Amino acid sequence: MKFFSFQRARKQFFLSLHLLLLLLFLCCLKSEAQIGISVSGGWNTTLPVFSVTEAGNDFNSTYLSAPNEVLIDVFKVSGSNSPFNWRVDVRKSDIDWGVGLQLSARRSGNGFAPNGSSFISGGTAFILLTHADQAFFNGRRDWYDIPIQFQLTGVSVLVPAKTHSTMVVYTVTEL
User: Fold this and answer.
1) CA 139 to CA 151: how far, in whole Å?
2) Which pLDDT belongs to residue 57?
3) For a 10 Å CB count at each end of the chain, is N or C smaller?
4) Tens digit of pLDDT for each residue in 78-109?
5) Which domain holds residue 44?
């Protein structure tokens, strides 16, 4: 004959509750290491209308944005002030993009870092944006107002005159 033990059931309940709380605590510890990225700005430009009067003449095929068209902040969301390393990846997601148009991006400056022992590197040469994530630049600790510049190439009389749009996606990863 089996007897139900209230004390035994109560101990198992508390043990389960403690394990659940421990798991929740560990999940919270993991989230302490999270970092964030904030992006402000965007390039919205209208290209000048040219009248091509002679065969062989074409539009200027390369256009540059302002050097600080976009500003990026990379920061620790919460947790300790211990140093952390990160990498920003970049890709584009076309909305209505013309065949032959190519968009490139580069980091045109450093921005600023409020903490010592910080660094930022890479991304100072234009890289052609594709639909796949690619390493853009990396750094250590919080960085703010990292300036990004864009370059548009492939503008031609063969590209339809209409609004072309794409979205640039930045992803930060803690290393």
Assistant:
1) 23
2) 62
3) N
4) 777 788 999 999 999 999 998 889 999 999 99
5) 35-174
Token duo for residue 15: 């043990």
Domain total of the chain: 1
Residue pLDDT, tens place only, 152-172: 998 877 788 889 999 999 999
Do 109 and 174 meet the contact criterion of CB atoms below 8 Å apart?
no
Is 1 within a domain? no
Range from 7-16, 23-32, 115-124 carrying the lowest mean pLDDT: 23-32
Closest CA to 143 of 73, 77, 38: 73
Q: Which residues have a Cβ under 8 Å from the Cβ of 158 and sit 6 or more positions away?
A: 100
Q: Tokens representing 21?
A: 């709380």
**92 token code pair:** 């584009």
Do the domain assignments include residue 148? yes
Distance CA 57, CA 51 (A): 10
